[in-house]
């Protein structure tokens, strides 16, 4: 039996400032042009528990995270929906008119703008999609992590007495960072409530897979040679979800790898503010569970 649907209103201002206005020669309409370029669009988002009708929307968000990794995303999505007493999806709030109440609820691939939840990957080792995820984490850390990081990740994954939660923090681009704070705060409250009911949501560690984009290292080396000097210039990094940079700062260990050969060009074609060619990466973080509340507080303080 599914848990009752929880709903929360989250109000955000989304700025449309993609187009810059060219300076004029003091004409009367200059101020109007500037104001129009910084127009604010108010959008109300609703955070609520996942439902069956969110299946395709959640699966699409997981697809943009895992790309071509051999994981059964349908099974992972069903698992997220089955534990709908923990976690939230982001949807745009809608006023329900009487005439809409009779309409049949349909799966809407674009109806879900984000998903924030956690999955116990220690408790569900016999579930094929979770076992495959654990194997993938070991494979990737063996290939890309330092020896010390790989050893720690391997030991944590193989120690069932210290449960691991996979944090899923996915949303579409341009959804403001501010929305992450109430979603994570709610997730912490729900995990505490679930734990008090003897559900397996008390963790020793979390794993978070982050999406980021990096500038081309080769171009930076070429710039250094052209300038004929030594400098400490490093690749530009753009985090898809900017709050995850704070998670990265608090991580015990991390490793990253390029997914340039797995991604669709449509997913990475938004970097108009930089001259660099940005390449997609994934960074995997291992975080002590006890630090999660302080990480959320740091995010809240920085965005305020």
From TrEMBL:
<protein>
    <recommendedName>
        <fullName>Protein BCCIP homolog</fullName>
    </recommendedName>
</protein>
<dbReference type="InterPro" id="IPR025602">
    <property type="entry name" value="BCP1_family"/>
</dbReference>
<comment type="similarity">
    <text>Belongs to the BCP1 family.</text>
</comment>
<dbReference type="Pfam" id="PF13862">
    <property type="entry name" value="BCCIP"/>
</dbReference>
<feature type="region of interest" description="Disordered">
    <location>
        <begin position="1"/>
        <end position="39"/>
    </location>
</feature>
<feature type="compositionally biased region" description="Acidic residues">
    <location>
        <begin position="14"/>
        <end position="38"/>
    </location>
</feature>
<feature type="compositionally biased region" description="Basic and acidic residues">
    <location>
        <begin position="1"/>
        <end position="13"/>
    </location>
</feature>
């Amino acid at each position: 039996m599914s848990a009752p649907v929880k709903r929360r209103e989250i109000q955000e201002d989304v700025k449309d400032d993609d187009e810059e206005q060219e300076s004029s020669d003091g004409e009367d309409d200059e101020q109007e042009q500037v104001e129009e370029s910084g127009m604010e669009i108010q959008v109300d988002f609703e955070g609520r528990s996942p439902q069956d009708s969110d299946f395709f929307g959640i699966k699409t968000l997981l697809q943009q995270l895992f790309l071509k990794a051999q994981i059964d995303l349908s099974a992972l999505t069903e698992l997220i929906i089955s534990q709908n007493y923990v976690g939230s999806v982001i949807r745009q709030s809608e006023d329900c008119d009487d005439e809409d109440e009779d309409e049949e609820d349909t799966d809407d691939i674009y109806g879900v703008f984000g998903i924030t939840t956690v999955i116990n990957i220690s408790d569900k080792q016999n579930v094929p999609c979770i076992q495959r995820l654990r194997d993938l984490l070991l494979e990737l850390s063996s290939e890309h992590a330092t020896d010390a990081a790989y050893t720690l990740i391997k030991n944590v994954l193989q120690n069932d007495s210290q449960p691991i939660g996979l944090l899923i923090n996915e949303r579409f681009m341009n959804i403001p960072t501010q929305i992450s704070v109430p979603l994570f705060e709610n997730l912490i409250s729900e995990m505490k409530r679930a734990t008090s009911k003897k559900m397996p949501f008390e963790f020793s560690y979390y794993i978070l897979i982050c999406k980021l984009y990096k500038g081309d290292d080769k171009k930076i080396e070429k710039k250094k040679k052209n300038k004929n000097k030594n400098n400490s210039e490093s690749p530009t990094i753009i985090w898809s979800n900017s709050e995850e940079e704070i998670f990265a700062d608090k991580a015990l260990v991390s490793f990253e790898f390029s997914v340039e050969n797995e991604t669709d060009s449509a997913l990475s074609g938004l970097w108009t503010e930089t001259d660099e060619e940005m390449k997609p990466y994934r960074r995997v973080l291992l975080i002590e569970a006890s630090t999660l509340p302080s990480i959320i507080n740091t995010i809240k303080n920085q965005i305020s």
